[in-house]
Amino acid sequence: MQTTTHIGAEHQALTAEERDTTAKERQGTVRRMAESLVDASRLVINAMTMVATTMGLRDLGIDAQMAKDADGRDYSVLPAAGDPIEVLHDAIYCLQIASSHLGKAYVPTRKYPSLATARRPEHMKMVLAGLRDALTSLRDELLALDLENSADTDPCIASLAELEARTCRAVPAPADGPTREDVVAAILSRPDIARAAAGALQRARC
Q: In angstroms, rounded to a whole number, what is the distance separating the alpha carbons of residues 10 and 36?
């Protein structure tokens, strides 16, 4: 699934930002965002495993296979071997929780609302689109069997589209930066800029 492939770039960007951030509260916010991505990724992988399990059960002809009693009737005292439909429901639930974690990652905070945006919007578009496609596919499969109400998944699919629209805006092309003379003049005239420049150079040497 493209979600598991592309989420890495966003997590990498967030962990790098956390490492380079000195303000503790801002650093904590970025750390929580990265942790939410880890949780979402883990749940998506679980859902992938569940879907693969469903396919395997079907290939083997196992469908809630139960032990039989002496008369050949289902013997419910012992556990059933597996139910592909139940596993699919579990996969949908995992994807919905994963979507919730992504939503929480990009909730604007009161102090740092500008942090609630994707660092790698081109990758996060693929992450969110992959989740929408997976949920839609599983929903449609269950609907075809008259086993699922689309209203159970439609709000989640809609929320993923809204999250993409809010957090994955295209980054504008950078404008022409200051000239070398502008940078030198700023460093000479403002001690805070001089300290920041010295700190950046020090980090670059490490």
A: 11
Q: What is the dihedral of CA 148, 151, 155, 158, to 10 degrees?
A: 90
- How far apart are alpha carbons 49 and 46 in whole angstroms? 5
Quick: pLDDT tens for 1-59.
Answer: 789 999 999 999 999 999 999 899 999 999 999 999 999 999 999 999 999 998 898 88
Query: What average pLDDT does this structure show over 65-83?
Result: 87
Q: What is the pLDDT of residues 122-132, one digit of tens each?
A: 999 999 999 99
Residues in the chain, total: 206
Burial per residue of 64-98, b for 16 or more beta-carbon CB atoms within 10 angstroms, e otherwise: eeeeeeeeeeeeeeeeeebbbbebbbbbbbbbbbb
Q: How many CB atoms lie within 10 A of CB 119?
A: 19
Q: Where are the alpha helices (DSSP H) in the chain?
A: 2-20, 24-59, 84-105, 121-144, 154-167, 180-189, 191-205
Rg (CA), the chain: 24
| Bridge partners (DSSP) listed for residue 46 | none
Distance CA 47, CA 179 (A): 52
- Looking at the DSSP bridge assignments, the partners of residue 98 are none
- 70-74 contacts: CB < 8 A, separation 24 or more? none
> Is 134 exposed, middle or buried, given 0-12, 13-18 or 19+ CB atoms closer than 10 A?
buried
- Token representation of residue 6: 């592309």
